[in-house]
Design a protein that fits this description.
Radius of gyration: 19 Å
Number of strands: 13
Number of helices: 11
Strand content: 15-25%
Structural class: alpha/beta
CATH superfamily of one domain: NAD(P)-binding Rossmann-like Domain
CATH class of one domain: Alpha Beta
Bound molecules: uridine-5'-diphosphate-4-deoxy-4-fluoro-alpha-D-galactose
Largest sheet: 7 strands, parallel
Distance between the termini: 42 Å
CATH architecture of one domain: 3-Layer(aba) Sandwich
CATH topology of one domain: Rossmann fold
Strand order of the largest sheet: 3-2-1-4-5-6-11
């Protein structure tokens, strides 16, 4: 019997890649998404890659009766919860919108999962570590007080899951992603930022294609080797595979603790300048960029110690940053070709 995984937010950037990897690993997937931050591009791409259409349900996870109905109508072995708002700056301007959406939706997922005995995988973030005292960070590194409502919702949702697991005999995993970048090698699914991108790689690819005039590198006076910030850029397909490992561990009853947390990163720090130069080199182009003032709220450096995921999940990142940056560029060109049709 195939196991069924519900992917909330499955039409988005990470959710679409996870859907592909889950189906290719033999899972049935139900995608549920309110399409508040995406169009049908990624869902269509998923269907094209897989050669069939996974069940798609348009719904909002803040709608408790709808969530209850979904869980009642389907036997769901595990749910992966992506459906959330994710723009740091917007969360500072609209905290209530972020708290209502990101917390309510997850509480509804937890309630329904509790009733139906469903395993829960929560998409958390390295943002919970804030500015770490020591790098790389392990899962034992202290969480720092959140610097944005968005970051706060990640911490709170981790705590909701921990407490529900402890109280109700549930099983849950939180995956803390570092900086997800890149696209599927088919170039049929990828990141679709609305408006001006906040994140580095979409800004790079949009500058390279001519949608943006110039990339601003936010600060070159940090205490790092080249003065720009250090991050752990994790390929989205590698990241998606980590979800398959985590889901299998849950549904096959291999968890050692009922609540587990894993860092999902490469373990390799990369500076903003190094990333820009790698992008130029692998794609054979010159990028228009300038050094700009620091962006408020940025941490100097954070990267993962991913050894626990390797040991317990049998997962590690495999794609090189060059392959990933080539895939991001292929995706941007695919979008441009589609727009020109
Ligand atoms: N950067 C630039 N120019 C840009 C965009 C980014 O120089 O146009 C730099 C940033 O200053 C930072 C690095 O590129 O040094 C990475 O920035 P991103 O915005 O791509 O990613 P962040 O590390 O800021 O974001 C990550 C996660 C978020 C999380 C955030 C918390 O992607 O989900 O950390 O700070 F909320």
């Amino acid at each position: 019997m195939k196991k069924t995984v519900l992917v909330s937010g499955g039409a988005g950037f990470i959710g679409s890649h996870v859907t592909v990897e889950l189906v290719q690993a033999g899972y049935d997937v139900i995608i549920a998404d309110n399409m508040s931050n995406c169009d049908t591009t990624n869902y269509e791409g998923v269907c094209a890659i897989l050669g069939y259409k996974p069940l798609f349900i348009k719904m909002d996870f803040c709608d408790a009766p709808a969530v209850e109905k979904l869980f009642a109508e389907h036997k769901i072995d595990a749910v992966i919860h992506f459906a959330a708002f994710k723009a740091v700056g917007e969360s500072v301007a609209e905290p209530l919108m972020y708290y209502k959406n990101n917390l309510d939706s997850f509480l509804n997922v937890l309630e329904a999962s509790r009733k139906s005995g469903t395993n829960v995988l929560f998409s958390s973030s390295a943002t919970v570590y804030g500015e770490p005292d020591r790098t790389p960070v392990t899962e034992q590194s202290p969480r720092k007080s959140a610097t944005s409502p968005y970051g706060n919702t990640k911490q709170m949702c981790e705590d909701f899951l921990r407490d529900c697991v402890a109280a109700y005999g549930m099983h849950g995993i939180a995956l803390r992603y570092f900086n997800p970048i890149g696209a599927h090698p088919s170039a049929l699914i990828g990141e679709l930022p609305r408006g001006v991108p906040n994140n580095l790689v979409p800004f790079i690819t949009q500058t390279a294609i001519g949608k943006r005039a110039c990339l601003s590198i936010f600060g070159d006076d940090y205490p790092t080797p080249d003065g720009t910030c250090l991050r752990d850029y994790i390929d989205v397909v590698d990241l998606a595979k980590a979800h398959v490992c985590a889901v299998s561990r849950m549904v096959e009853g291999r968890m050692e603790e009922p609540y587990e947390i894993y860092n999902i990163g490469t373990g390799r720090p990369e500076s903003v300048l190094e990333l820009v130069q790698a992008f130029e080199k692998v794609n054979g182009l010159k990028l228009n960029y300038r050094i700009a003032p620091r962006r408020p709220g940025d941490v100097t450096e954070v990267w993962a110690d991913p050894s626990l995921a390797q040991e317990k999940l049998g997962w590690k990142a495999t794609r090189t940053v060059e392959e990933t940056l080539a895939s991001a560029w292929a995706w941007e060109k695919h979008l441009a070709a589609k727009a020109a049709e």
